[in-house]
Write a structure and sequence with these properties.
It is built from four helices and nine strands; from the N terminus they run H-H-E-E-H-E-E-E-E-H-E-E-E. It has 199 residues and is α/β, with parallel strands linked by helices. It has one domain: NADH:ubiquinone oxidoreductase Nqo5 subunit (Beta Polymerase, domain 2).
């Protein structure tokens, strides 16, 4: 268990208003913060003795289309000296720009590019914010919940033109009926057909 009270007391006065809550879940210290304070909080947690979260493991996002602040950004950190893990969570609305943490953690460069590519969240002061996983000229952001599962374009190699061509998606998916029952949970629902087969 981590002494959350000591973490709160060790925060600088300038950060206390930016940190909405601190709690611990599953061995992770979780900071819920305001999005405009992300660089200040990350810098503090990296350099402050007793925190020393000097390793940025990952940055990811979750889309909640029904919420006013649609996207939740999650930063994962590790402190090797303190043997602790930390998550910073902040919520942003669509079209809201977030400060890049690349000046603090250089490895955030590709993480932020991936989030921009897949969710459309932009990061100010990023050194090279462009798509990293999707193709040139790709429309939309594939991990948004409103992005169609079939996409907008399909790619194929045209033997006549001898090049890759882009065409509007022609994939159609009819209704499918899934059987989620497991024969191991209720064997009486299934019969053993081998008993009825006689050689």
């Amino acid at each position: 268990m981590t002494d959350i009270t000591s973490f709160q007391n060790n925060l600088s006065d300038t950060l206390r208003d930016s940190v909405l809550s601190i709690k611990e879940e599953y061995g992770h210290i979780i900071f819920d913060i305001l999005p405009n304070a992300i660089v200040d909080v990350v810098t503090f947690l990296k350099s402050k003795k007793g925190f020393s979260f000097s390793t940025l493991i990952d940055i990811t996002a979750i889309d909640f289309p029904a919420k006013e602040k649609r996207f939740r950004l999650i930063y994962h950190f590790l402190s090797m000296t303190e043997n602790k893990r930390c998550k910073i969570i902040t919520s942003v609305s669509d079209q809201q720009t977030v400060d890049s943490v690349t000046p603090v953690f250089e490895c955030a460069n590709w993480f932020e590019r991936e989030i921009f590519d897949l969710f459309g969240i932009t990061f100010s002061s990023h050194p090279d914010l462009r798509r990293i996983l999707t193709d040139y000229g790709f429309e939309g952001h594939p991990l948004r919940k409103d992005f169609p599962t079939t996409g907008y374009l399909e790619v194929r190699y045209d033997e006549v033109e001898k090049r890759v061509v882009y065409e509007p998606t022609s994939l159609t998916q009819g209704y499918r009926d899934f059987d989620f029952l497991s024969p191991w949970e209720n064997p009486n629902l299934y019969t053993d057909t081998t008993k009825n087969n006689k050689n």
